[in-house]
Amino acid sequence: MRHAFTLADVEHELWLARAGDGHRLHLGARAIPVSLDRGLDGAATLRIDGARHHALVSVDGDHVHIHLDGETWTVRHADPVQRHGHHHGASADDIAQAPMPGTVIAVHVAQGQAVARGDTMVVIESMKLETAVKAWRDGTVAAVHVAVAQSFERSAPLVTLAPED
Questions:
Q1: Which range marks the domain in which residue 22 is found?
Q2: Most buried one in 18, 40, 55, 59, CB count within 10 A?
């Protein structure tokens, strides 16, 4: 899932993908090898493209404070559901979001389809547990954001219902 972070009033969209014993940070057209080893005291060793950095990291809500190589940065994480909802004219109340990371097992709705409260829209699997994501109100499906066999992160948008009048 893509995430958006704001640093120095500039929004950056990125995502992480597992790669060997670390991850790759995808930022624009670049894929940068990264890994993070956390200590018990908030200290961490961050490896970025092979270079090793010592960091202190503190999280306060959607703000991440990072002290890295003698400089301090504050980065704000944009909630993907809120960001996605605002981007498409919906509110977070109109979006069914993933309660945990997992994989889509079944999709039972399509864009434009009417749903009633309690109808199963999507079935997901996480840690070998299947969960039915149900409509929380009557409405019309505005968008389906996932497909069968697709993996997703916690809070990923699954289905958006059209805003209520």
A1: 3-78
A2: 55
How does pLDDT run across 96-155, given as a tens digit for each residue? 988 888 899 999 999 999 999 999 999 999 888 888 999 999 999 999 999 999 988 888
Contacts of 29 (CB under 8 A, 6+ apart): none
Query: Using alpha carbons only, how large is the chain's radius of gyration in Å?
Result: 19
Answer whether 99's CB lies under 8 Å from 131's CB.
yes
Would you say the pTM of this structure is higher than 0.90? Answer: no
Tell me the C-alpha distance between 57 and 23, whole Å.
18
Task: Decide which of 11, 44, 78 is a domain's last residue.
Answer: 78
Instruction: Say whether both 55 and 15 belong to one domain.
Output: yes
Domain count, the chain: 2
Strand partners, 160: 95, 143
Q: Based on the domain organization, do 146 and 94 belong to the same domain?
A: yes
DSSP 8-state secondary structure symbol assigned to residue 112: T
The angle at the Cα of 13, spanning 103 to 125, to the nearest 5 degrees, equals 10
